[in-house]
């Protein structure tokens, strides 16, 4: 059975439905919103919004603490969500699923609770040049704290982590290898299986940043055999402020708590000190984001069937959108893609000869089109590519071919209306 149908999928997103439907303007059909910033955050289906509201209206109570029925109900829903995440990524145990604020916090926990306590001066950390700042800055801080050194894996012209180079980067001194499954700018599925295998061969710990992968790929952490996998709910149709740190149990057991307070303790005494709770609670100090955890479970229930569907209709439709958008952009003379070839997911980044990224994004915004311009939290990648920023179109399966055509038509119109000559550019530089 084909469970994915583009218009039925789209209909489930109220913000898209209410703002994205066509308006008649000057006799032409114009959408009031074309949302192409899905790599930053996705819109939420009605059932996820309803679920969060339902929790506050019907179940709201603190979890794990009270013996009353409401708390039991909240705890049940909260822990059921953890089991759902376990199944979603194929983890061995629920104890390996830690709730965090998002991918950023997950990486910071690994860095401060594990890397900080194990790295020695001269030890090496390998990162890819295309990492998001969330997977760079925590490592820079720990390198400063411990005397460890960061080594950078380059990318190919096609935007993939350059697997040919890893033998030069990952070696006996490497203790941690952290890289994105998919970069938020390049949109390529990195060969992380090979990176993990190489890291294992030298005894390094592997961290995969799955932030951009979870809405598009089926993840199985056991077959990947990575030590850690991190992601945020809001990039997979779930709420903001909630994410996951998956870690192999043996490693999580060894790690010290990240934050301290209620929930993460077993016993507290002024004379005997404190003993910590078992996994996963050891890493979950304080009252968690209960409503978002429960709504996150709803987003997993929403997304999972599309990803698991044997006909791959969801994935094929996403691919169709990517191909269409990429090809249409490729036909515009001024477009320079930041990497060669079509991306693997709907993340398409480019610059425009003779035009400023920000001006273009602002002009598109006046046409109701939301795209992103800037460094996309990947400044080292921009430096590597010798650009100071780029435009990024990021697509979801609720987008349409018609929206892409509208975007391309608007972009062409703007390019005609706002020719920005090289001499203007030179004059501006001189003024600065
Ligand atoms: N890594 C990647 C590849 C991302 O795209 C993002 C979000 N843009 C993050 C990490 C950080 O995610 P969050 O802000 O949800 O913690």
TrEMBL record:
Residues 34-407 form the Aminotransferase class V domain. It comes from the Bacteria. It is an enzyme of class 2 (transferase). Keywords: Pyridoxal phosphate, Transferase. Its EC number is 2.8.1.7. GO terms for biological process: cysteine metabolic process. GO terms for molecular function: cysteine desulfurase activity; pyridoxal phosphate binding. Belongs to the class-V pyridoxal-phosphate-dependent aminotransferase family. Csd subfamily. This is cysteine desulfurase. The chain holds residues 1 to 432 of 569 of the full protein.
């Amino acid at each position: 059975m084909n469970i994915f149908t583009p218009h039925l999928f789209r209909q489930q997103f109220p913000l898209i439905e209410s703002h994205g439907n066509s308006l008649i303007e000057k006799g032409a059909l114009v959408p009031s919103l074309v949302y192409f910033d899905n790599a930053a955050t996705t819109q939420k289906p009605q059932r996820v919004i309803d679920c969060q509201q339902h929790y506050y209206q019907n179940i709201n109570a603190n979890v794990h603490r009270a013996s009353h029925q409401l708390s039991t109900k909240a705890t049940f829903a909260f822990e059921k969500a953890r089991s759902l995440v376990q199944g979603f990524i194929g983890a061995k145990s629920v104890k390996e699923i830690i709730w965090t604020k998002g991918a950023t916090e997950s990486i910071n926990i690994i860095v401060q609770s594990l890397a900080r306590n194990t790295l020695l001066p001269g030890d090496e950390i390998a990162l890819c040049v295309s990492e998001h700042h969330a997977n760079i800055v925590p490592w820079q801080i720990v390198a400063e704290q411990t005397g460890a050194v960061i080594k950078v894996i380059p990318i190919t012209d096609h935007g993939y982590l350059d697997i040919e180079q890893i033998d030069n980067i990952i070696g006996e001194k490497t203790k941690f290898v952290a890289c994105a499954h998919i970069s938020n700018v390049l949109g390529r599925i990195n060969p992380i299986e090979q990176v993990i295998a190489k890291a294992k061969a030298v005894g390094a710990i592997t961290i995969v940043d799955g932030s951009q992968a979870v809405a598009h790929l089926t993840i199985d952490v056991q077959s990947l055999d990575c030590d850690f996998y991190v992601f945020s709910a809001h990039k997979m149709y779930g709420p903001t402020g909630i994410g996951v740190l998956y870690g192999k149990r043996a490693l999580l057991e060894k790690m010290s708590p990240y934050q301290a307070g209620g929930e993460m303790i077993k016993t507290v005494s002024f004379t005997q000190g404190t003993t910590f709770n078992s996994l996963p609670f050891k890493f979950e100090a304080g009252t968690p984001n209960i409503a978002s955890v429960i709504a996150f479970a709803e987003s997993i229930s929403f997304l999972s069937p599309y990803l698991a569907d044997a006909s791959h209709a969801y994935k094929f439709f996403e691919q169709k959108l990517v191909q269409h958008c990429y090809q249409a952009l490729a036909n515009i003379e001024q477009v320079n893609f930041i990497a060669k070839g079509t991306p693997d997911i709907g993340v398409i980044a480019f610059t425009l000869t003779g035009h400023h990224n920000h001006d273009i994004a602002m002009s598109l915004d006046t046409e109701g089109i939301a795209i992103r311009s800037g460094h996309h939290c990947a400044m080292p990648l921009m430096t590597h590519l010798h650009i100071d920023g780029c435009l990024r179109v990021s697509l979801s399966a609720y987008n349409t071919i018609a929206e892409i055509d509208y975007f391309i038509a608007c972009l062409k119109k703007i390019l005609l209306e706002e020719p920005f000559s090289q001499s203007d550019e030179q004059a501006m530089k001189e003024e600065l």
